[in-house]
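forwarding from the other thread:

> can someone predict this with fe (ii) ion?

sure thing
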Amino acid sequence: MSDTQWPLWEVFTQEGEGAPHEHAGSVHATDAEHAIQNARDVYARRGKVVSLWVVPTESISASSPGDAGPLFDPGSDKAYRHPQFYKSPRGVKIF
Amino acid sequence: MSMTTAPAEDPTKLAEFESRLNAGETIEPKDWMPEKYRKQLIRMMSQHAHSEIVGMLPEGNWITRAPSLRRKMVLLAKVQDEAGHGLYIYCGTETLNVSREELVDQLLTGKAKYSSIFNYPTLTWADIGVIGWFVDGAAIVNQTMLAKTSYGPYARAMIRICKEENFHKRQGYEICSVLSNGTPAQKAMVQDAVNRWWWPSLMMFGPSDAASPNSAELMRWRVKKETNDALRQRFVNLTIPQALAINLTVPDPGLRYDAETENWEFGAIDWSEFQQVIAGNGPCNRERLAARRKAHDDGAWVREAAEAHAARQAAKAQSSAA
Ligand SMILES: [Fe+2]
Ligand SMILES: [Fe+2]
């Protein structure tokens, strides 16, 4: 039997109730259930993790670094989306 | 001289790459990078991953003979962490377009290198203490630097590893401290282990910078931020006061404190021993590779069973959907 390496899965861990799931790394596994078990052993050996996501690596689509300029440009010239853009009378407590 | 010359890189892209590095930016898997950078990282990261995996063997040797249940639990957890470290770095290496299969194959066929320190035997229980204290201690110095390396996946794996290493060193130092304060026989045992591991631990940082062929380029590309010699000196400066605190000495008659540089000056390293071990003639090189191959072969049925199980689950899911 061939010595295959199995499909690759990306692992996301949630470290504590209410925290976002963050990318931790990846594991090789035969299926999703197996990937969760491997991810538990590799990325959750200490008490903090409360939830795991595993996603087949090939299912992830990502923006490409070459497009980063034009793709994120629209967000960089809109100062009016930040509170510092606005003036309020001296001495008034806004928040 | 190498037979194949690296393809000439696009000078515009190379300049852009180097200016990103100079600006302190992190390189990610999909970013453009010179072929040489990719190759150097694959070499360095896979050697590092292999070292974590082979490093389980000398310590695993003592799990069944740990002197108490507490020590046994701790050693098991430590060795399991090292397996995890190997896996973090393998998956980081795979982002450079090399498969796990290839990496494992390079280790098992003896093509790949791993840290020479793991080719020394663990003769007594005190060796487990000294490994945690010296070998993990040296690894922390090296990995703390690598946590700031320019390649994102490597840096992130190092940050994860550094968080776990402190316990490895602490448990080792605790073992040494207890033995040093124990019976005369225990004190002698730990001193003997220190004597055997001291020089190989200093060699872990690699050849002196003058003799290190890759150092300059790795530093220019911010893969490494400090030289082998600087890291080695930091390790010595950290470790000597720890040894003095538990009444142990290192086997170096030339050791002395230089008040001006605030460094512990140490004697000359016997690099011929290092070269011998790297060349495969260390005390345990053959044994380590044989153990890895046996573990891989003995695990074949587990891999087959996992695949069969997954295939059956998939078939079941399909027939219940139909
Ligand atoms: Fe480690
Ligand atoms: Fe460790």
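Chain B has one domain: 11-283. thats all i got for now
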